[in-house]
Amino acid sequence: MEIDSIPITSCSKEHQGIYQEWFSYADSDGDGRISGNDATKFFALSNLSRQDLKQVWAIADSKRQGYLGFKEFIAAMQLVSLAQAGHAITHDLLNSDVDLDSLKPPVIEGLDALIVKKKRKEKTSELDANGSSQVETSVSANWFSSKSFKKVPLSAVTSIIDGLKRLYIQKLKPLEVTYRFNDFVSPLLTNSDFDAKPMVMLLGQYSTGKTTFIKHLLKSSYPGAHIGPEPTTDRFVVVMSGPDERSIPGNTVAVQADMPFSGLTTFGTAFLSKFQCSQMPHPLLENITFVDTPGVLSGEKQRTQRAYDFTGVTSWFAAKCDLILLLFDPHKLDVSDEFKRVISSLRGHDDKIRVVLNKADQIDTQQLMRVYGALMWSLGKVINTPEVMRVYIGSFNDKPVNEAATGPIGKELFEKEQEDLLADLKDIPKKACDRRINEYVKRARAAKIHAYIISHLKKEMPAMMGKAKVQQRLIDNLEDEFGKVQREFHLPPGDFPNVEHFREILSGYNIDKFEKLKPKMIQAVDDMLGYDIPDLLKNFRNPYD
User: Fold this and answer.
1) Taking every pair of C-alpha atoms in the chain, what is the biggest distance, in angstroms?
2) Class of domain 160-180+438-539
3) Do the beta carbons of residue 248 and residue 270 sit within 8 Å?
4) Which of 193, 309, 336, 484 stands 20 to 30 A from 74 (CA)?
5) Which residue has the higher pLDDT, 133 or 466?
6) What is the pLDDT of residues 304-333, one digit of tens each?
7) Does 3.40.50.300 match the CATH number of domain 191-399?
8) Nearest-angstrom CA–CA distance, 125 and 111
9) Quick check: helix, strand or coil at residue 200?
10) In the chain, where are the structural domains located?
């Protein structure tokens, strides 16, 4: 079971040098990205049909970022070369038997002369500037600083993610700050939250094979990996790409600006001491980050209280993750009280959840049918959705399938299930941009509802006397107040926050200090959802559409 790096392809050092020179020429603004406009001008020199070039872009920009980086540019050039040689352009072409290392660069008409002309122009510009050079920094990297807060030119946006950053800073963040959304619901977003790689979180009781599953995908161990029949460590481990193998303590990870984990500081030192980041160089980790969680407690072990809010932490990661895998063991199908709380905390992220019945080769086919039925019955009691949850059955480790127990039918079933799960994991990088947009829109709607709630509570407070008494009444009858807000603004009741959680946080605030409703801020977010985001997606669609 292996996930290929997507869409990075093989390429000789000699050809990489050629492609680097071509990339620098095509990248008109020198930001390290080939935009749709850049591509249409450069790719036109290949003399391929518009339909072929549309396919080239669609395959190279499989993550739908709206631009090509250098590796994606190499993939595009190899596709152009194959198309010029008469191959039909398909999604599987680069993964076929074609020898990409020896594949010659495509014919790009008149490119050499254009590159010479550009170099001559750059040399003239350098002389005009008296040889002075300035180091350019990424515009978007500075957007989250306090001074560059308000106005970011549209010309600076060269990708969908950059566009979301701009919209967040200009339209959504002011609303969140005004109504303290970061105190009640989710910390303010940072640059690293937008740029983070897709994440996959594994949840399950101890000894269900979470760590082994990650090792199986990586085909190697990773720093901090612990395996055992009992809870080996109460620790969250983020496994991500890095220049070398090392473990970084949680307190250090939480303050690193280039990592999207600063929000975990709200869970305190007790949690951060149980959190670590394992870095290692690996092609799979260049596309996906894994979150290995402590085994969920069951039976007598539940009486042991954790030193931190375990359910709150899993909920925080669930909001950040692109996929959540719930792992079960055929011999541990009971859903403990802690597991129920954890699954309940995943509310609103049902589309991300997949169930894995691991170690299924430990039982025969007849037992497997009974176990599958028992698992679906157990899940039906805690996951309140009308849809049937997707369950992958298999034995996700490096050992061969136990055919003595499963038989030939079981082995064939496990292989097909592994292929299906592999396809699901392969799709994660491709769908990451769509998922980011989806989560951003969900956040914007949640922030709007939060603003309506806060401003409504403020409006209910008296101008002079009896403020403390009214505040307590509002807190006690919070569910009724939610109902009033829902009816007044015609909001979906399912989008409102958990009443008990909201009440707990609200009790620590003076409602009279809250802000009144600011219609202009709400309108700005409505315009963002209704016009700005659709326009952004339109601007960065396939340039050949």
Assistant:
1) 84
2) mainly alpha
3) no
4) 193
5) 466
6) 677 888 888 998 999 889 999 988 888 777
7) yes
8) 21
9) strand
10) 13-118, 160-180+438-539, 191-399
